[in-house]
Amino acid sequence: MSQQEKISRLNLATLLFPLALVLFEFAVYIGNDMAQPAMLQVVQEFGVDASWVPLSMTAYLLGGALLPWLSGPLSDRYGRRPVLLFGVAWFTASCLATYLVSDIHSYMLLRVLQGFGLCFINAVGYAAIQEAYAENTAVRVTALMANVALIAPLAGPLAGAALITLAPWRTGFLLIALCSLLALLGLWWKMPETVQPSAAVKLTPRALWHGYTRLLRDGRFVRSALCIPLLAMPLMAWIALSPLLLVEDLHLSALEYGLWQLPVFAGLIGGNLLLALVAERWPLGRSVLVGMWPLVGGLLLMLAGVLYGGQQHVFLVLGMSLMALGEGLSFGVLYRFALTASPQAKGIVSAGMSMLSMAGYALGIELFRWGYLAGGITGFALLSVCTALGFVWLARPQVKRAMAERADPDLLPQGI
């Protein structure tokens, strides 16, 4: 899609494509968050013990890790539109197929197949968003979409728990499939084709290997891509460890635990909304530099409160809320900078970003787990501060370089 064809104004008509994409993203996310509360019914029906319960999430995430390396290059070869439509249709059909399973092994295999839906969101869908919209508009759209996607981890478990009290567990998958089907119809109607399908893109193992190794040898791309997991890691670790921090260590009730999560998500939503507001008013990248202040300052405040203050849960939540505000101001811009850091086809670039992010999240959460086991709440807070400082050290020069290039368009890498 040429620069002249890129969308630069947002209205209902130009937002229908991202709305349909984020509806699919929502369906895929609640495919995990809504399904987990039903697992006790699943294992009971299939006559197996409760040790199978966590394997449902593992199988789903395994499916999401299997195909990004292929879905991105496929969309370079055949176009974003047909590949994404296939991915949405696949996910819809695999959710409906739960009505056919009759044992736990078939169910777990189906969870892997359903997890394939994760492979099409970033590697294909978000790449198309970046290509369909002008640069600042793409950042605004990404920030707005992030708020809708945040509803899934909040509403999914509650909706799943409520549904299993009213209907059989398979009904949840029917509702997820319906949501995905509506997204499919919206994408069929409004998704543009943003790349020209090219037979020159080879999908042989050798060609893919050379493409990814060339990408990973590009130091600028790797540094830009690693900024994303470094930015998000404290919040990801908070999601993983906050039940232990708040309930086990600080003895909050389950209700109090849930209520203290609200300021953190509010901070993230507020940061995304601020980014959408300033994206076309500020030079692209300035919001990241501004966001570094609440990000680092909030985590330093959290560490000081944990070490020297009472009411540790207040400082934990306040620090994480400020950190989340900084993340919201930064994420959409950093995603754009990483995607445009390499001149290679954007399908393989977005797939490479997705795989680096997943690897960074996996390693980071394990590191935070060990930090918590070694130092408890203090270990978590100290590691959060170190991660934030590492993010500033890595991201600041990348952002300043990207801002300088956009101030002088002759310096921009090919393909922006």
TrEMBL record:
The keyword Transport applies. It is found in: Membrane. The chain crosses the membrane at residues 12-31, 51-71, 83-102, 108-129, 141-166, 172-189, 224-246, 258-278, 290-308, 314-335, 347-364, 370-394. Residues 11-402 form the Major facilitator superfamily (MFS) profile domain. Pfam families: MFS_1. It is a multi-pass membrane protein. SUPFAM superfamilies: MFS general substrate transporter. Keywords: Membrane, Transmembrane, Transmembrane helix, Transport. The keyword Transmembrane applies. PROSITE patterns: MFS, SUGAR_TRANSPORT_1. This is MFS transporter.
